[in-house]
């Protein structure tokens, strides 16, 4: 297994060459369903139904589970799609997939879907999360990536879509998670007592909770870090602007989005896997924070972009 390399192959066949229990953390974003054409035979995302798409991804993530160390984590970014009619392109009575957040790229809207009504949100992220959970993954969290600068949409009968999911999935119930590495600044409200107590209702001896022996011990509201700042455990809504990329790979992660996945999920000198590496964002962030990476990407053009980024952004780390 060569570290700090992007393998040009299909993700499933690439993953099969990796040893069991060897990877600390996987951070990845598969192609969204029926959203864009990445210009390669064998690409995932163009399956005729959402169900077949989920089946294919479940197969891929089963291999990811095998190669993860027992205390490893998977951070899986995934967006949704709507079933809708194609105005001006054929019959309006036919049902097609449309992207829920039309970011960029060559949008594919040609599938006729029988299981969904026009305008239905398919619910792809949770279809995938539940499929992985039933395979044995622990579904630990649905982190919301809230985009302060979403793509404008012309809809007037629902709100503009401005979020995607990052699911935190784990191989075991206990796993590596460095919460201190990603703690966030807390607004100190002036109280001297840094511990939060339950209200009197729950602390006096004769309440129902006390009688039921429910744990009412103190929980920490905030703490101070080494620089003396008040900090708190990171929340699960992450406000991160999208950033267009000069090299124009479709749907590249913002570096700021995945930095915390890598800091919390992988120790220094550990290995981060991205089996849909695209333009190499996971590799760049991993190297910036002294982690190794292994990438897999089907389209050689994107690997060229990734190598250029790695070279330009951190040549000295390569
Ligand atoms: C959403 S993009 C990933 C973008 C990446 N996170 C970044 O920051 O640039 C998905 C990528 O998966 C690749 N891909 C599609 N099918 C694949 C397959 N079967 N095996 C490996 N890569 C595949 C596409 O070429 C595309 O680059």
Short description:
This protein has about 325 residues and is an alpha/beta fold.
> Order of helices and strands, N to C?
EHEHEEEHEEEEHHEEEEHEHEH
Mean pLDDT value = 83
CATH superfamily of the largest domain: Vaccinia Virus protein VP39
Shape: globular
Provide the CATH topology of the largest domain: Rossmann fold
State the CATH architecture of the largest domain: 3-Layer(aba) Sandwich
Multimerization status: single chain
What separation lies between the terminal Cα atoms? 17 Å
Keywords:
alpha/beta; 8 helices; Rossmann fold; 318 residues; globular; 15 strands; 22% strand; eight-stranded mixed sheet
Protein described:
This protein has 318 residues and is of the alpha/beta class. The chain has 2 domains: 5-83 and 121-183 and 233-317, Vaccinia Virus protein VP39 (Rossmann fold, 3-Layer(aba) Sandwich), CATH 3.40.50; 186-231, no CATH class. 25% of the residues lie in helices and 22% in strands. The protein has 8 helices and 15 strands. The strands form 4 sheets. It has an 8-stranded mixed β-sheet. Strand 14, helix 7 (281-288) and strand 15 form a beta-alpha-beta unit. Helix 6 (255-265) crosses helix 7 (281-288) and helix 7 packs parallel to helix 8. It is globular, with a radius of gyration of 22 Å. 35% of the residues are buried. The site of S-adenosylmethionine has 22 residues, from strand 15.
Topology (SSEs and partners):
Blueprint (H helix, E strand, L loop, with lengths): L4 E4 L2 H6 L6 E6 L21 H18 E11 L2 E4 L11 E4 L24 H12 L2 E9 L16 E8 L13 E2 L9 E2 L3 H4 L4 H4 L7 E2 L2 E2 L5 E3 L4 E3 L15 H11 L5 E4 L6 H8 L3 E6 L2 H15 L4
Parallel strand pairs: 1-15, 2-3, 2-14, 6-13, 14-15
Antiparallel strand pairs: 3-7, 4-5, 6-7, 8-12, 9-10, 11-12
Helix pairs in contact: 2-3, 6-7, 7-8
Bound molecules: S-adenosylmethionine.
The site of S-adenosylmethionine has 22 residues, from strand 15.
